[in-house]
Every structure is written in structure tokens, then in C-alpha cells.
Amino acid sequence: MELLKFAAIDIGTNAVRLLFSNITENKEKTTFKKASLVRVPIRLGFDVFNNGFIDEVKREKLISTMHAFHHLINVHDVIDFRACATSAMREASNGAEIVDAVRKKTGIDIEIISGKTEAEIIYSNRIADMIDNTKSYLYVDVGGGSTEITLFSKGQIELSHSFNIGTIRLIKDQVKPGEYQKMRETLHGLKNKFPSLKIIGSGGNINKLFKLSGKKPMKPLSYEKLKEIYETLLSYPINDRIKILGMNPDRADVIIPAAQIYLNIMSWSDAKKILVPKFGVADGIVRQLYYNFKEHSG
Fold first, then answer.
1. Average pLDDT, the chain
2. This prediction's pTM
3. Which partner for 219 in 31, 136, 196, 215 could form a disulfide, CB atoms 3.0-4.6 Å apart?
């Protein structure tokens, strides 16, 4: 049995994450296991969706975080790593400038990826291997700046789309009405073509919502149960979500719009249940790194 280690940096709209994963290989199967996760709530989206750029304070915080991540990656002796930035950096007018500064000061090369690439990375988690390949599923990742949806039917990708609808955008009232209309029309079309859709949710918010449901891993969460959790959370002021429910401050505000997005998607696609396998962008990056390593190592 061989043990391999890879790292992934996910620079999101709400938080920046560094994931270390151990991969074990034997004749029967390959196992991916999270070794460590570091999460820093820099909240780049609050700058970008207000001003169109990332200010000096958050710029320096990001550089300091990348410095720390660089040292951690070195001491973990990973085979390879990749750093990807999503919605906030995509839209920041000084995104390329910040990428250049990070590269010069820390040695980390950040890729600002498109919504399509983000959806492909998320799909790399191979959720299809864990479910019924004879059915159709909608893979949904709700972030701070965008929502990625990937439809796969009988193990094949039928549609992949990124919408500029995210939790921080909603908090800042920066979602254009036409964007919701596009999402609604897309999902209505899927409902007619692929009846009895189930949703697979990824991201920190749906993971937290699932945890609040008390369900066992890989057990489906119904629309009714998700709505019940949402209404319960809505009844608590944000300070009580932090004090009484024990949420982190940067989770207590975004979890409400996240639940709204998931409920809308379930309603518009006529999906009754959602599966929450606890995979996200960083997990997908690790899998892509591993598959690339195996392809080139012979």
C-alpha cells in the first residue's frame, strides 16, 4: 500500500481554505482522506461586490495567508498542490495585480478560474461513483459569489452552468434580477426533461445545514426538513445564531441566503431531496492533482 499527499488552496468569496489530503492505494481501491483543513474567513467578496476591487487591507491579509499556507505546504512534503480563486477574484478589477503580488511575495501561483472550470473541478469529486448511475442528479455548489450547477444523467454530464448568485452577493443586494430568471428558466427546463431529480449539495453552508438536521451521512435531506431548518434559523437574530447555536460569525450571516438558494433550486427543479456528501472545490482540486500525477507517473 502506498501513501500519497496532495494539497489544495481554494480562494473563495467568503473564505480561503487549505486542504491536505492523504491518498492510499491498494489493489482493491484508492481512498481519499482529509488530513487537515485550514480555513481563514477573509471575505474578499465584501470588497468586490461593493467597490469592484479588493482593498489594501484584504490584499495584505490574503498575502499573509498565502505566506502561512506556503510554509505549511513545505512542511507537509506534498507531491503537488494547486491554488484556485473563484468568483470574487474573477470580478475584482485588480485581481491579476494581486495574483502577481502573491506570486512574487510567496511563490504561490494562483489561478483565477472560470465558473465552468469551477463546476468541472467540483464534478471531479466523482460523486457519480457513489450513487445510482441509472438516475439523474443535479450537483449544486453555493458559494459567496456564484452558484455552480452540474447535471449528470446515467453517469454523463448533460449540463454545467455558473450563475452569479451567491450568499455574499445576496447580503450586499448585488444579484441582478435577470440572473435569478436565468436560473429559474434553466431549472424549469431540467425539470421537464429529467423528472425525479435529486440534488447533491456541496460547500460549507449546506454541510452546516445538514449537520443541524441530525441526519446520518449520505442520508437524504428533504425539502420540508431543509425549509424547517431555514425557518428555525431565521427566527434567531444573527447574534443568537452565534451565541446560542454556536456558529462562527462568518457562517451565521451567510447560512440564511445559502438556505434560500438551495430551497429555490429544489423548488424550481421539483427536486424533493438533497444529498450532502461533504465535498467541495478543494476536494476536487486534490482529485485532479492525483489523477494528473498517476497519468504522468506511468
1. 91
2. 0.86
3. 215
